[in-house]
């Protein structure tokens, strides 16, 4: 095995598309093609099980509310202005993203602001735009019975349909599969089984295991 | 006419000759399907015919597909043919709202101007600020203030086929005029129109362009489906019943169809100060509705379908019509 495969910041060898990393604007597809795809901003990549947390974006900037952030073409380099909807965040597998081109990307400064943006409670009236220095928030004010509510709930359904809930078993399976070459070493696998380690414990164990250290050397 | 596939749209967009037959076909179908339910005068036309529809198609291309990354967005987001078509339908709606907005702006501006005139205030002049001549002029801030005042008012849902939505109730207009006088400086036609434009960019659009599923499915079927034709009688009745409702009753009906049940909720939704007024309007609506059903000879077993048709005409998606009717 090459050393690079041991670096948690590297892509898994099973993927052939463009690597997925934080800040990219990509398309998420349903691998079963049962649901419509959506454009998203990649907010976090989990190397352990090759999943990513993504947030929905769309081009309907006119109905972006004060809970949403505006990503202009100047910020993303995309061909179109986008609204980022921080309420609409899901976890997807990288296989769902990697075949998509990169339509734009948000640099680390703006990503930091996005990471730190606290989507306010609907019950609290405060000026949350004060949190922002580099990005703008939407200015649409939906009212009672506004069609925007239905649109937003439809979009929540759409993005949720593309996502996967946290599932320790599935993540561990993916983790084991990805790290299989290492785990094939009998001693590592035995320890994992005997100790009934959970996903995080296995990951930590592997990173501190002698076998890995040897591989790295 | 076969349905244009995503691949065809993509190939055409990537070709050196640019957009052509495939995109034109989808946009043309979308425009035809959408404008059919909209009054031509809102777009500056006397009637809908091939020539005016062609004009709108061109506007859609210029305003939304070739500019603002419209084409690129469709191709970026869509992974299926249906999805691409739905995206194009949305761009068509956006473009139609671009075209419609100036007319709505004029209507509301005229309404506000008339109310000022009734109070002996000429909005056209710039003299309104003289009483506070020590304050500095900042028209941009004033326009933003106007926008906030306008956006703070409750709005009617769009009435779809009937006519352009009034957007605001008379009481909202009164509130707008009152607050404009109290809070905005300098208060002149330019500021009010500017603020209104800023607000309308949000107001006019949302109700139309995010509810295009109905049009989309209709267009996919290539026009009216058999079911649509069967329900056309209900729509005719629905239109007739709606015409017989007073403005207040229509607002109450809309609120009920959106799920407002109690008179207290109704008062809040309609911006009424007293629950008793809401109760009075509610009762009046029921009576008017009943009378209209009787007058049109709509028997009880058809009434639910007619209410559904009315929802469609009012662009309302309703979960439980029966509950609303019982209320």
Describe, in plain words, how this protein is organized in 3D.
- The complex is a heterodimer of chains A (217) and B (327).
- Residues 1-15 of chain A have low confidence and may be disordered.
- In chain A, a hairpin with a 4-residue loop joins strand 2 (38-46) and strand 3.
- A seven-stranded antiparallel beta sheet of chain A has the order 6-1-2-3-5-4-7.
- With 217 residues, chain A is α+β, with helices and mostly antiparallel strands.
- Chain A starts with 23 loop residues before the first strand and ends with a helix.
- Helix content of chain A is 33%, strand content 19%.
- Chain A has two domains: 3-162, SH3 type barrels (Roll); 168-216, no CATH class.
- With 327 residues, chain B is mainly alpha-helical.
- Chain B folds into three domains: 6-98, no CATH class; 100-208, no CATH class; 224-326, no CATH class.
- Chain B contains 15 helices and no strands.
- In chain B, helix 10 packs across helix 13 (275-296) and helix 12 packs across helix 13.
Q: In terms of per-residue confidence, which ranges of chain B show pLDDT below 50 for 5 or more consecutive residues?
A: 127-133, 158-165, 209-230, 319-327
H-E order of chain B: HHHHHHHHHHHHHHH
Helix content of chain A: 25-40%
Number of helices of chain B: 15
Summarize this, please?
The complex is a heterodimer of chains A (217) and B (327). Helices cover 33% and strands 19% of the residues of chain A. With 217 residues, chain A is an alpha+beta fold.
What characteristics describe this protein?
heterodimer, A: 217 residues, alpha+beta, SH3 type barrels, 7-stranded antiparallel beta sheet, 8 helices, 19% strand, disordered N terminus, B: 327 residues, mainly alpha, 3 domains, 68% helix, disordered C terminus
């Amino acid at each position: 095995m090459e050393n690079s495969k041991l670096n948690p910041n590297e892509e898994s060898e099973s993927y052939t598309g463009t690597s997925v990393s934080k800040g990219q604007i990509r398309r998420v597809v349903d691998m079963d093609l049962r649901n419509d795809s959506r454009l998203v901003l990649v907010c976090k990549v989990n190397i352990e099980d090759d999943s990513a947390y993504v947030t929905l974006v769309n081009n309907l900037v006119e109905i972006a509310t004060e809970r949403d952030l505006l990503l202009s073409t100047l910020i993303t380099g995309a061909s179109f202005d986008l609204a980022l909807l921080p309420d609409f965040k899901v976890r997807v597998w990288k296989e769902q993203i990697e075949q998509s081109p990169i339509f734009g990307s948000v640099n680390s400064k703006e990503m930091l602001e996005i990471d730190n943006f606290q989507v306010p409670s609907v019950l609290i009236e405060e000026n949350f735009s004060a949190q922002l220095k580099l990005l703008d928030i939407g200015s649409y004010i939906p009212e009672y019975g506004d069609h925007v509510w239905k649109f937003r709930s439809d979009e929540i359904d759409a993005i949720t349909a593309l996502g996967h809930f946290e599932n320790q078993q599935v993540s561990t399976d993916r983790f084991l599969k990805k790290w299989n070459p290492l785990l094939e070493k009998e001693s590592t696998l035995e320890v994992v089984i005997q100790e009934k380690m959970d996903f995080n414990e296995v990951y930590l164990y592997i990173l501190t295991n002698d076998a890995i250290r040897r591989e790295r050397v | 006419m076969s349905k244009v596939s995503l691949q065809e749209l993509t190939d055409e967009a990537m070709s050196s000759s640019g957009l052509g037959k495939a995109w034109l076909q989808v946009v043309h179908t979308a425009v035809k399907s959408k404008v059919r339910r909209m009054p031509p005068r809102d777009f500056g036309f006397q009637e809908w015919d091939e020539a005016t529809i062609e004009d709108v198609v061109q506007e859609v291309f210029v305003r939304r597909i070739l500019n603002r990354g419209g084409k690129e967005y469709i191709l970026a987001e869509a992974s299926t043919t249906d999805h691409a078509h739905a995206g194009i339908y949305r761009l068509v709606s956006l473009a139609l709202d671009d075209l419609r907005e100036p007319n709505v702006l004029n209507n509301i501006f005229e309404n506000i101007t008339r109310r000022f005139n009734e109070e002996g205030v000429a909005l056209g002049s710039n003299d309104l600020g003289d009483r506070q001549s020590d304050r500095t002029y900042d028209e941009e801030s004033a326009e933003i203030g106007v926008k906030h005042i306008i956006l703070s008012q409750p709005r009617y849902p769009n009435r779809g086929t009937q006519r352009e939505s009034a957007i605001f109730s008379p009481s909202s207009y009164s509130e707008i005029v009152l607050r404009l006088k109290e809070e905005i400086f300098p208060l002149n036609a330019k500021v009010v129109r500017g603020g209104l434009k800023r607000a309308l960019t949000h107001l006019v659009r949302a109700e139309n362009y995010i509810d295009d599923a109905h049009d989309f499915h209709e267009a996919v079927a290539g026009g009216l489906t058999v079911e649509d034709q069967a329900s056309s009688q209900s729509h005719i009745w629905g239109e007739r019943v709606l015409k017989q409702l007073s403005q207040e009753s229509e607002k109450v009906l809309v609120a009920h169809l959106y799920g407002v049940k109690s008179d207290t909720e109704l008062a809040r939704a309609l911006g009424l100060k007293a629950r008793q007024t809401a109760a009075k309007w509610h009762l009046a609506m029921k009576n008017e509705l009943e009378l209209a059903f009787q007058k049109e000879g709509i028997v009880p077993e058809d009434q639910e379908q007619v209410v559904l048709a009315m929802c469609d005409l009012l662009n309302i998606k309703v979960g439980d019509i029966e509950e609303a009717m019982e209320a």
